[in-house]
Design goal:
It is built from five helices and two strands; from the N terminus they run αααααββ. The N and C termini lie far apart (about 70 Å).
């Protein structure tokens, strides 16, 4: 039975961290918190904080898959301990895992990208997500001649 619980905890952890920073995150987070509330209502707040911290790390990381791999081990231990304390959580965790896996398999899970850019005091913002940006600044000199900004490299 312990091997079964360990496998379920690992599958659940994989689903939880895969859902971080996607459209599935809020529902997955709520499902995990519901599991922890069942046996220990006081544990929901700290678990929620750890889930949010992990999701924030995934969302802001340059290498989100590496962060997910690291978090999967942590959440596998958390979920295994939960299943050991409250074996009745097996069915709801299996259901949550199947729902998340099914959403990914059907393509319903989309990565959520967030970007905030602000330009102040005559500033200019050049921003891009998942791509490259190449900007050249030119100015008009005396007599209408164009010249490249010296900070932009060789002319």
């Amino acid at each position: 039975m312990s091997d079964e619980l360990a496998l379920l905890a690992e599958a659940g952890a994989a689903a939880v961290v895969a859902a971080m920073a996607t459209d599935l995150w809020q529902a997955t987070r709520d499902g995990v918190l519901g599991l922890f509330r069942r046996g220990a209502p006081d544990s929901a707040a700290p678990v929620g904080a750890r889930l949010d911290e992990g999701a924030s790390l995934v969302r802001t990381s340059a290498a989100p898959d590496d962060v997910r791999r690291a978090l999967a081990g942590i959440w596998a231990r958390e979920l295994h301990e939960l299943l050991r304390r409250d074996p009745a959580c097996r069915v709801p965790l299996a259901r949550l895992t199947a729902e998340v896996d099914g959403a990914f398999a059907s393509g319903r899970a989309a990565v959520v990208l967030e970007q905030n850019n602000t330009a102040r005091d005559s500033g200019t913002v050049f921003a891009v997500q998942h791509g490259d940006i190449h900007a050249t600044h030119t100015t008009r000199g005396a007599g209408g001649a164009t010249r490249q900004d010296p900070d932009d490299g060789p002319q």
